Each structure stands twice: as C-alpha cells, then as structure tokens.
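Hi L., both proteins are below.
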Amino acid sequence: MKTLSPEEARQHLLAEEKAAICVEGSIDLRQTKLSSIACRLQCNDLDLSGTPIESLPKSLKVRSRLTLDNCTSLQRLPKGLTCGSLSLRGCVFIDRLPEQLSTWFLNASGCPRLSSWPKEATIRNGNVNLRNCVEIRELPGWLGPLGQLDLGGCVNLHALPEGLQVSGWIDIGGSGIQSLPKSLANSPLRWRSVPITHQIAFEPDKITAKQVLDERNAELRRVMIERMGYLKFANDVEAKELDRDTDAGGQRQLLKIDIDEDEPLVGLVCNCPSTNRQYFLRVPPQMQTCHQAAAWMAGFDDPKRYRPVIET
C-alpha cells in the first residue's frame, strides 16, 4: 500500500486509478466530479461534499471524519463502515444506514428518506443530529449513550426507547414526541436550539399569556407562543384589531399584539373554506389590511395584483 500526500492521493482518486493508497492526512474532494472510488483507500479525513458519488467501496477506511454532505446521488453506504464522525447532511436519497456501522458522531440532518436502522451498529459517546428526518418513526435500542441528540422536525417520531441515555440536551422542536422515557426524565430540552422547560415541551396547555409576557428572553418567548398557540395567545391578551373583511372562508381579522422589547406580533385570523378550521397566520408587522396580509402570504409584493378568483 502506497503512502501518498493528500494532494497525490487526490489526483489518483480523480483519475480513478486502481491502487492501494494510505494517506496520513485529509483529502478534500469537495465539489469535484468524482462519482466512484476505484482504489483501496485509507486516510484520516475524507470530504466528498457536493460530489456525484453514488456509492463507497467496502475497502474504504477513514480513521476520523467522513463528510458526504449534499451528495445527492448517494443511496447506499458499505456494510461495516467505521469512522469517528459521519456527516450525511442533505443526502436526499439515503434511506437507511449500513449494517455494522460504527461511529461516534452522526449528522444526518436533512435526509428526508432516512427511515431504516441497521439491526447491529454502534453510535455512541458523541452527538447525533437527525433534524428534519421526517420519515424516522423510531430509534434503535442499541443507540447511545450520547452527548447530544437533535430530533427537531422529526414529525413522525412519537416516542424514544426506554434506556436511552443522553448526557447533554435533546432537541425535540417540531417533532412528534410528547413525553420522555424514565431514562431521560432529567435531560435538558431544546426547541429548535432554544433551551426550554419540560412544561413548555409537554404541557403547553398550562402556559399562560402572563407567563409569556413576563418572559424576558425573546427567543424563549416566541417558542412559548408557538407552543401555547398563536390564536389562543391572541385571544388571551385581547389583541388589537387592525382590519376586518371577508373571504371564501368567511370573516377574517388582522390582529396586532405589542410585546415589550420585541417587534409586534401581527397575524391574519381566517377560516379554511373546506374545514372551517380557524388559523392565526403570522405576517410581517408592517401589514395594515387583511388583503395586504393575504397577498403577502401568496407571494405578492403589490397587494393590487392579488385578485384571487377562488381561495382554498
């Protein structure tokens, strides 16, 4: 096995030469046209971000970081893949992780098809980021212990396995999780990166308008309003009506709520024509009329150009 410099190895890989190569360093192939790896390769770090790589060879050995961000042609990873850190951000066709995977850190954020876990694998001691992995419905029992776990946007994930241990925080913002197992009862929580309490996470019906208005942290206050529900918050604080008219769903209102040390909260309250469900749709604070707000939501900068025949 030849020992090459990172640049020499880079040229071998781009030329798709068949060889056995060892590199004591990092190989950067970001944004190249590399679609396959023909050689047997060992290296410390390998970055293939943004390449049209379709698969990785079983012979690949990466001692530290393997970065495959935005490899949109990649569908499979080799069985037994071992590396210190694996990043798959934006790999939109990856739907499963390989059997016998072994890593400390996993970033699979923005992998909308990822849904299947291997029966046997090791991901422990580091951090796992599964943000916006909308097809994930469960986590495997072998996962962890972990340092941090980001499950933001995992809308189809409703429960976590008993026995899972996370020493740092768990982000559940926008996920389907409504409670934690006993093993995570004392774990700090986040909502889209904002630290929150267990009440905000799991008892939003107990949040009061006074609690929201008394909260000095603007980011946390916005999360509390989201969890409480914009419409309920607007009703509880008796929001100021800026405008009123009617559309296909019936009467609609443009409401404004002034908040200390933050921009006003302005929203269009309207009914869905098919379900009659009422919504509070947040719009920029400079909106003055219901029509202007509806036009903005439809993508019109000039409200005069927004003339819907049928609204659904």
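That was the first. Here is the second:
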Amino acid sequence: MIKDLLESKKCFKLVCGAGHEDALEVERLVYLYAKAGCRFFDLNASPEIVLAAKRALKSAGVEDACLCVSVGIKGDPHISKAVIDYEKCIGCSQCDEICPQGAIRYHKVKSKRCIGCGRCAKICPKGAISYVSEPKELCEVLPPLIDLGIDCIELHAMNGDFEEIKRNWDYIRNNFGGMLSICTSRGNLSDCGLVDLVKGLIADIEPYRVIVQADGFPMSGGEDDYKTTLQAVATAEIIQNAKLQVYIMLSGGTNSKTAELAQMCGINYNGIAIGSFARKIVKDFVGAEKIDLSSKSFETALNTARQLVKTV
C-alpha cells in the first residue's frame, strides 16, 4: 500500500512529530488530514500515539492509510526535549511566545508537546534553555508497536555516529518486514558523506524497500516561501544524483511551495513530508478546547488542509 502511494509520486506525508506525545492533538491532526486526503502519517513511537491515530482514522472512515513511527538516537533533535535552567531564567516569556507547539507556558515545559525544534533556545537572552534526549532501546520500543500494526519505521540518522546508526538500523530491518525509512540531512556531513551514509545502510537491502527522507533543515517549515524549502530540495537533489534504488521524500522546511520548486529543479521525488507548516496552518482548530465538526472553523481548517495536500 505504501509503495502504491510512493509510486504515484503524489504522496503527502503528515508529520505529527517524532517527539509529539500529546495524544489528543495527534488524534485531531490525523482526523483532519485524513479527511483532507492524506494517507501517510508519521508518528511518535508510542502505543498511545499509534492508537490515537488509529481512532482518528476509524472516525474519519479511512481504511487505506499507512502509519509510520519515527525513532531516533542520542543527539537527534527530533526526540530532544527543552529544559529550562531556572537559575538563569529571567521570566521574559520570549520562549512562551515563540514555541510553535505551545509547549512552554509560564516558563514551564510541557514535555509531551515539545518536539525539540530549538526555537526557544535560540531566542533565550540568557542561554537558560538546553535540550536533552533520552532514547530508549529499540528492542523495548518497537515490538508492541509492530504488534499494533504499523506500515513503516523511520530511523532518524542525525548524530554522525555511524556505528550507532547502523546498530539501530540493523535491529529494525531484522525485526520488521514493512517499509524502512532513513531520515537524514547534511548537517555536519559533506554531500559525499550523506550519500556514503545512505549507501552503507541500504547496501544489502532489496531495491525500493527504503525511503530516504531528505531532511533539508529539520523542523524549519514555519514559513511558506521558496527560501524556507530550498534546503529540502537541495538535499533531495543530492540523493537523486546518487542514482540509488530508493524512494525519495522531501522534508525539513517543506511547505506549499516545495513541490513547485522541486519540479522547477527537476527533482523526481516520490513524496513530500510536511510537519511544522502543516500543523501551523490548522493550529487554531487542532488546539481548540472543544471541537465541533459541523462548525465553520472545522470547514475552514479542512479546506486549508485539503489545499496543502493537493500541492504535492
């Protein structure tokens, strides 16, 4: 089923957030985007979140959607959480205001909502915010999720430690029969280093069992312009030029301009994963205290989501 989506070259993947553990919000996001036509959802790797997504799909009457869980390794920003040093904090509230997830309120971090985007640390005038990541062993995390029924597992290969990446990758491929995905970016790697990393991971795997999610600038898709999505397109081009037998998905700074720019640049992509921007444009509906599916606000949010899905 995932292969059909990818081979259509019109695959839209909603990224709920690898670190997003707010089950109610995830359930609302999945419901809304499923009704809008999305059939591929990227989720935090916990039974609570997978079950929330399944409830949403059932409520939306969607039976042909695919679920992916994302796992990371130590140092991966996608699974990092903000921590405030209160000896340095001056209570200026700049972190509260800039957080796209509403994960900081009154200088307190709501860990379940934090996705590790880094915006709060960058704006803090006193350097009072840092990040911690505490990844669990995949042998603890994945078996119950596989039992629940998932279609894809994505490994965020971001920290540059190839041995650790390979150890986790080998566990996934040896214990899961579905689609595999590598989410990686240039980061501290050269273009050649990025390609070598991917080649090393897919060396003895059958063709087109792997998605390479080319993460241009992780979690940077808050704006809707060409510049924001430029690095996603550039990273995808590096993978495309390597002529690997993988599916290519753009991510990291993706928005409604991504498909247009990718097509202008001759990128033969299979799909686009959109997270920050997709969540931002329906934030008012998803974050409402109560929702009314017959309301004008739901209709507006649904139309907004549909327009984004159609851009892919």
